[in-house]
Amino acid sequence: MTRALLPTAVVLVAALGAFPGATPVAAQQAVEPAIDSLLAEMTLEEKLGQLAQYRGRWGDTGPRVEEGGEVQIRASAVGSFLGVYGADYTRELQRVAVEESRLGIPLLFAHDVIHGFRTIFPMPLALAASFDPEGAERASRIAAVEATAHGLHWTFAPMVDLSRDPRWGRIVEGFGEDPYLGSVMAAAHVRGFQGDDLASPQTMLATAKHFVAYGGAEGGRDYNTVDISERTLWETYLPPFRAAVEAGVGAIMPAFNEIAGVPMHAHAHLIRDVLRGEWGFDGVVVSDYTGVMELIPHGVAADSAAAGVLALRAGVDIDMVSGIYVNDVPAAVRDGRLDETAVDEAVRHVLRAKQRLGLFDDPYRYNSVRPEDVTLTDESRAFARDLARRSFVLLKNDGGVLPLSKSVGTVAVIGPLADARRTMLGGWAAAGRAEDAVTPLEGVRAAVSADTRVLHAQGAEFEGEDESGFEAAVVAARQADVAVLFLGEHEEMSSEANNRTSLDLPGTQENLLRAVHETGTPVVVVLFNGRPLALPWLDENVPAILEAWFPGVEGGNAVADILFGDHGPAGKLPVSFPRNVGQVPIHYNHKNTGRPPAEGEKYTSKYIDVPWTPLYPFGHGLAYTEFEYSGLRLDAERIGPADTLGVEVTVTNAGRRASDEVVQLYVRDDVASVTRPVKELKGFERVRLEPGKSRTVSFHLPAESLAYYGLDMERVLEPGRFTVFVGASSEDVLEIGFELTE
Ligand code: GLC
Hints:
This protein is of the alpha/beta class. It has 4 domains: 1-41, no CATH class; 43-372, Glycoside hydrolase, family 3, N-terminal domain (TIM Barrel), CATH 3.20.20; 389-577, Rossmann fold (3-Layer(aba) Sandwich); 627-740, Immunoglobulin-like (Sandwich), CATH 2.60.40.10. The strands form 7 sheets. Strands 1, 2, 3, 4, 5 and 11 form a 6-stranded mixed β-sheet that branches. The structure holds alpha-D-glucopyranose.
């Protein structure tokens, strides 16, 4: 079959080849004319085909395109697929695109590679708890190497939506409640996935999602209305997206929600004016799943064509799975409802992404590595185990119950998560397999001495009232020197569309815990969960509580490493844990109000039934040693707007074990033109200290980092008094003041 215009794609390659060592600008200019010449050859249908993305389905030997997918490829009616991967299979589909379609434009293959491809790492909320951006970057790097070896070019990650509402199931997919931590983690993930050369066959396009304020859903109900102030939008929810764009993220995915009446998939101001205009984002905007079609139920589009026109006008380049761009937009362009330049602009973004990935140079470059050589390697597993350990947060450890001795006589392993395999991977587990995962029971058995007896009883269910398993658990606990209860949520109780109105331990788990506690056998609780839980009874009655989130493929081993002391915990909470759901929304960077809560003063902002404070605050996390902070000092009492303030503190390991500690720096703008948070995280450093040793931890605080959105919503840097806080959590801090001068 002769392809009249294949030379066009070759021309694009030639144009690129002409600038092998050119500066990026020259190369970029070379690409644009080449893309423009390809555009000029394309029919309207072929252009809209580039903007269509369809999902895969699970075939008998792996992910496959839907029936008729290859016909769509040959007809240039599709530009990318999601959920289709496999080195050989994607090579064949690419061959069909390049050799059997009129223009030979390569396809993009995308997937939700969120926290690993086959080596599954801790879920993003857990990675945030590690306060280890280098670790998060390396995990994303490994994920990209595995995913690209299976033919994938593009991941729909990182999810950078902040949340202050644990009822929302997707809080587990993001980095918690803080804009600074969220921004640092967003950039780390983008660097990991994209590396420093997108055209390398082992790097992939990253996507910052869901743009924007998705975590602000009313009632914590996924997809629900978001109605926030402009100030909250800019001070809280936008910064992690800005950080991802500054890190060079190649794609952005709009959120399902509206903001104050404007659905994000039709939000021309935030997409065109802010994202592209102010921030200079020149990558691809890909809709969320049926996000374009959903403009109809949102009530801003009367039909599919209107939805397609709205979305393209707003700057949504790719229509994920609703098929509207291909089916309904041609007529809208031809009858003048939509100017074809909007289509051309979207196609240019897609072709530019394909060019940046090197697909015009070599469409098969992502089918060159032997997948088995780089997938689920021992090294990746070992790193997954280390990262999981670093993500755990020791919430409580009264009397030093932890670490346990490996030569304990009998340990009872109890709870619905004690031998849970699939749940260790959490949600969005890509190509992860339950059989790859190590359960806590297996981890404990591998860790203890040969003489230790390990008893196991599941005890409870996640749902319902059944307590028939309690007796076996109580019997096991009675025979044991210590009972370790593995409690929490399964993976379908958080992530997308999995919202809860309760933050209690699901099912009969707390009753199981009480029954075991009554035996008098010392109890330790390990939590696996996708959101902050409300744990007042545990906090009152359980001496040791370890938060393990969803720890990934090596979860069971990592938990055992910490329980039996081979390693010490040092993670910190990236999100506040409330006392009960009635406190939600709750977050550390709140405003002071005109009547800040004051004990004993009735008419101040608090509750009559529970303390107003969280059970465990943002930044909280203990270790198997004690850290002492002293000597907080500044290198100046006042600084000017162009200066940087030096902050130092002495941290001492006053205990008997070496440990990491995440030293945190917060700032408060004491008086400003608008109300400001009582604290804002501005820096952190995870340091390691040998027992008895002290070290100075230094931070550099640029004056420009004190800027905020003033009365007129312009960035301002106002002179005045500021307070610096440094410590082990957002509440456990030393403080000192300084002045910012004109
Ligand atoms: C889902 C999610 C989004 C994901 C996309 C593709 O609905 O909202 O995070 O990337 O669809 O699976």
